[in-house]
C-alpha cells in the first residue's frame, strides 16, 4: 500500500515541471491583462474610427514660432535646442476642408501644431536646415501628387497622419507572445500529468502480472 502511494505521488522533477507550467500560465494571463489595460486598449481606441484616404498637399509653410526639443550628447549630458515649426496642409479625398498633416500619432501628441519634428541636434541651425529640407521635399518631390494618409473624422477632424504608429503587426505581437507563454505552460502541465498517469498505469499492470 505504501509503495502504491509513493508511485502516485509526483517526483521532484515532475513537481518542478508542474510549477514551471503553472508559472508560465500565470505569466501569460497577467501579460495579456497588463498589455490589454495599459497598452492595447489605448492603441485600439486610437485606431478606432480611423480611415485611410488620399491626401493632396495644399500648402507648405514655416511659422515664425520656434519650439524646444531635448538633445543628448552622452550618458549624463542633455540639453535643449530649438527648431522652426513646419506645417503641411492637405486636402483629403473624404473632405474638402484643409487638414494639418502629421508624421504619426506620437508626433501629433508631442507637438500638435507642427507637421514635423526633426531629430534634435545641439545646433539650432542644424535643426532649421533639417526642417527646410523636409519643406523642400513636400513642395518639390511630392507637390500635387496624391498619397495615402490616415484620419479620424470623429476624434480629430482637423488632423491627418502620414502613417500609423500602432499597425496590425504590433497588435498581433501584443497578443501572440503572452498567448504562446500561456499555451506552453498548459502543454507542460498536461504532458506532466499524462506522463505520471501513464507511469502509474504501467506500474499497476506490472504488479498484476506478478500476482
TrEMBL record:
Which keywords describe this protein according to UniProt?
Glycoprotein, Ion channel, Ion transport, Membrane, Transmembrane, Transmembrane helix, Transport
Which Gene Ontology biological process is one annotated for this entry? detection of calcium ion
Q: Please indicate which superkingdom the organism of origin belongs to.
A: Eukaryota
Q: Which InterPro entries match?
A: K_chnl_Ca-activ_BK_bsu (IPR003930)
- Pfam families according to UniProt: CaKB
Q: Which GO terms describe its cellular component?
A: voltage-gated potassium channel complex
**Location of this chain's protein in the cell:** Membrane
Residue ranges crossing the lipid bilayer per the database entry: 20-42, 175-199
Its membrane topology: Multi-pass membrane protein
Q: Name one GO molecular function term.
A: calcium-activated potassium channel activity
**Statement: the UniProt record of this protein carries the keyword Ribonucleoprotein:** no
Official protein name in the record: KCMB4 protein
What organism is listed for this UniProt entry?
Haliaeetus albicilla
